[in-house]
Amino acid sequence: MRLVLTLEAENFLPYSRINKHTIQGMIYSYLQGDDFSGLHAEKGFKFFTFSDLFPSNDFHPGKEKTLLISSPNPKFIRTIYENLKSVQHLYLSNGSFKVSSIKKVQVPLSKEFVTGSPIVLYEDTGRNRYFSFRRGGSLEFFLDRVKENALKKYNAYYDDELYFEGPIFDEVVFNKEVAVRIARGGTEFLIIGSMWYNLRRMRIEKGLKKFFNFIKDCGLGEKNSLGFGFLNPRNNAIEGV
Question: Which of 16, 199, 219, 236 has the fewest CB atoms within 10 Å, counting from its CB?
C-alpha cells in the first residue's frame, strides 16, 4: 500500500533544501504515539520507502509537488494517513506547504518497474563503499546483490525462507547513476545509486507474486527508509482505496 501526498509550496525554496533526512523525519513525526513510534530507533529493516519529490525542480509559491510513501504493512500507511489527514500545513526545512491532498492507494502488480528514487547497494559493507557502475561495477553483481538483499528483507518480514533460482529481472534498461548529497547533524556525505527506465521480469510465477508485491511496496536495495529504491509499476494506473 502507498500514500500519495500532494503539497503546494507557499514560499520559494531551492529543491536541494529539502533532502531525504527532512522527509524521513517528517514521516517519523507522524508515527508518534502509535505502534510505530519507536521505529526510528530500531535496528534493522524498517520496511518502508518513499519517492523523490516530483517534479524535481525548485519550489515556487502556488506550485505543487507530490510525494509517494509505500510499505508492505498497510497499518503503517494507515497510521500516517490518520495522523496527516487533518493537517492543513507542513513545514519542511525553511519551506511552508499547504497539504493539497492525501490519499491511500493500492497499486496493481506489474512485470515491469521504473525507479522513483535511486537504487543503492553496498559493494563493500565493511568499508562503507557503495556499488558504482562508473567504478567498473558489473550488471551481474548489481542483479545478484539486488536479489540477495530483496530475499533477505522478504524473509525477515514474513519469517520465511524463500529462495528462487535465476535472476530477479530478465531485462533491464539503465537510466543513469547519481550521487545524492545527504546532510545530517551538520555533516554532508554522498550516497551513490542508480536510476532505471525499466526492470522487467518476463513472467512472475504464482509462487513469486507475493515476493514481487513485497518489493513493489518495500523498495529495492539498501537504505529504503531513507527514500532509496522506490519502485513504480510501469503501465499500471493507481487505483484509489
Answer: 16
Whether 6 and 118 map to the same domain: the answer is no
Residue 137 is assigned to a structural domain of this protein: yes
Same domain, 209 and 131: yes
Q: Which three cell numbers stand for residue 121?
A: 547497494
Same domain as 148, residue 95: no
- What distance in Å separates the CA atoms of residue 95 and residue 10, rounded to the nearest whole number? 7
- Bridge partner residues of 182 (DSSP): 189
**C-alpha to C-alpha distance for 227 and 229, rounded to whole angstroms:** 7
User: At residue 189, what is the residue type?
Assistant: F
Are residues 122 and 94 located together in one domain of the fold? no
**How far from the centroid of its chain's Cα atoms is residue 86's Cα?**
24
Assess contact for 192 and 120: CB atoms under 8 A. Answer: yes
3-state DSSP assignment of residue 175 = strand
From CA 142, how far away is CA 137, in angstroms rounded? 8
**Distances from the Cα of 43 to the Cα of 59, 74, 225, angstroms:** 34, 21, 12
Within 10 angstroms of residue 162's Cβ, the number of other Cβ atoms is 14
The answer to whether 118 touches 50, Cβ cutoff 8 Å, is no
Q: What is the pTM of this model?
A: 0.90
- Report pLDDT digits (tens) over 87-126: 999 999 888 999 999 999 999 999 999 999 999 999 877 7
Residues recognised as catalytic: 28, 40
d(CA 51, CA 144) in angstroms, rounded, equals 24
Does a structural domain hold residue 241?
A: no
Distance between CA atoms of 210 and 212, rounded to whole angstroms? 6
Q: What is the C-alpha separation between 219 and 70, in angstroms, rounded?
A: 8
Whole-number Å distance between alpha carbons of 154 and 160:
8
